[in-house]
Amino acid sequence: MSDTALAPVLRDPGPGLVVLEPDRARLFQELDALFTGIADRLAGRPVLGPALLPAEGLARLDYFRNFPHLGIAAARFGEETIERLSGGLAPQDLGPGDTAPTGYMLPSATCYGLLLALEGAEVGPGLRLTAVGRCFRNETHYEGLRRLWGFHMREVLYVGTRDGAAEHLARSRELILALAGELGLELGYEPANDPFFDKDGPRARLTRLDPVKHEFTAPDGTAIASVNRHRNFFGERLALTSDGATAHSTCTAFGVERWVHAMLLAHGDAGRALERVAAVRAARAGDRA
Known about the structure:
Elements: H1 3-9, H2 22-41, E1 45-46, E2 53-54, H3 55-60, H4 63-66, E3 73-77, H5 79-86, E4 99-105, H6 111-117, E5 126-136, E6 150-160, H7 162-183, E7 188-191, H8 202-209, E8 213-217, E9 223-229, H9 233-237, E10 241-242, E11 245-246, E12 248-255, H10 256-267, H11 270-288
Parallel strand pairs: 1-5
Antiparallel strand pairs: 2-4, 3-4, 5-6, 6-12, 7-8, 8-9, 9-12, 10-11
């Protein structure tokens, strides 16, 4: 079946769930290749993070104090429930007692798994890692590629010195804005309004006074990338050190599906968006030659 014939056949399975047909899937892949290029320029070493995160580890990072409403827990069926399901029980008839907790959560950001994996590490003058992961969030509503149950996040994580963290963020901002310009995207840059569960809690108030996260936004307000300053929070909670001192950390994040959305918004359709991405990749390849 041709790509043209396949596109009308594919349907989104439900609210907040999308299937990218071939052109949008290629756009996704080409964009992530550009983000990987930025990670290379930031000296990010590629790794692959875990599919689930331990709830106990997230609790030590104050995840449940700040974002309990976004979390999605991984559960398993009990033996009796499995037998009932195999006997024809409809999934919609399951009750609260039919599942048991596993102690694991679906990740809502790629960096959590990487940071937890580094617990107790001494990173010397600095460590840079990059990974793309499927992330999940319980949202109040879902909307196209802008807001999904599950989406892909490419991150570049820095763990090291205070000065190294500041340099990582400054360089990331420069590289993101340069790429957006080449892709024909007009992006805003503004402090993030993170969805803290307690808007008047200490972490939310501190963030308003001294923003630690800035977002790059498409003209329709969609946040498609961010730069995040963690200070020494994760260093203290996870005993991370850099040349013997408590480590500072930062991360640069790209919401890949949201970049697809922004490119469609800017260029009208996936075909023209792909042409623009191909031109950018060719120009960048020529610069490296």
